[in-house]
């Protein structure tokens, strides 16, 4: 519980110590905020949230073990009122949308932390949602796009790793002809002219990780 309701209690989650130190430094400049705990993995984030019940949680998406996205989902399922801000270097609309669907209330690029973190935390604590304009525009721009199926995403990941259709077929225990159909659908949905371009688009949008 928060002994001082005027102070916003914060949990910071990132697997890079330098980033955690930076967050601590920025938060430390604001008297109305307190960094009550830090975590470097998804598992630690869940445990620290349960222990401290912070007002706002800052969550990196790329974490060892349980991903940030999955940690958000678990925390949100246990505590629907949890206020979670995603901190990431990626501008991809697909990744942002997944995080928001998992339960995040806001999204902030790490490059904006120094200038925007305090105001963003305050806005979230007031019940607002915060999404950078460029990411909101990306989400809106692809809102009517036909999404890749889960199987198509799996195929695309194998393609991104340089595997041929035959190898992908063997790995997924399906025919090579079926893989070709999946690849054709992937190219069409992403508006790509080649497998290489499809992978580039998928990386940029956060459909698959680099």
Describe this structure as you would to a colleague.
The protein has 210 residues and is an alpha/beta fold. It has 2 domains: 8-141, Response regulator (Rossmann fold, 3-Layer(aba) Sandwich); 150-205, Winged helix-like DNA-binding domain superfamily/Winged helix DNA-binding domain (Arc Repressor Mutant, subunit A), CATH 1.10.10.10. 53% of the residues lie in helices and 13% in strands. The protein has a 5-stranded parallel beta sheet with strand order 2-1-3-4-5, with helices on both faces. α3 runs parallel beside α4, α8 (165-172) crosses α9 (176-190) and α9 crosses α10.
Low-confidence stretches: none
SSE topology string: EHEHEHEHEHHHHHH
Going by helix content, strand content and strand pairing, the class is alpha/beta
Number of domains: 2
Strand content: 5-15%
The proportion of residues forming helix, as a percent range, comes to: 40-55%
Shape: elongated
- Record field, number of beta strands: 5
Question: For the CA atoms, what is the radius of gyration?
Answer: 19 Å
Mean pLDDT: 90
What's the CATH H-level superfamily name of the largest domain? Response regulator
CATH class bucket of the largest domain = Alpha Beta
What order do the strands of the largest sheet run in, or round the barrel if closed? 2-1-3-4-5
Helix segment tally = 10
Please state the second-level CATH architecture of the largest domain.
Answer: 3-Layer(aba) Sandwich
Cα separation of the termini? 39 Å
Q: What's the main sheet like?
A: 5 strands, parallel
CATH topology of the largest domain: Rossmann fold
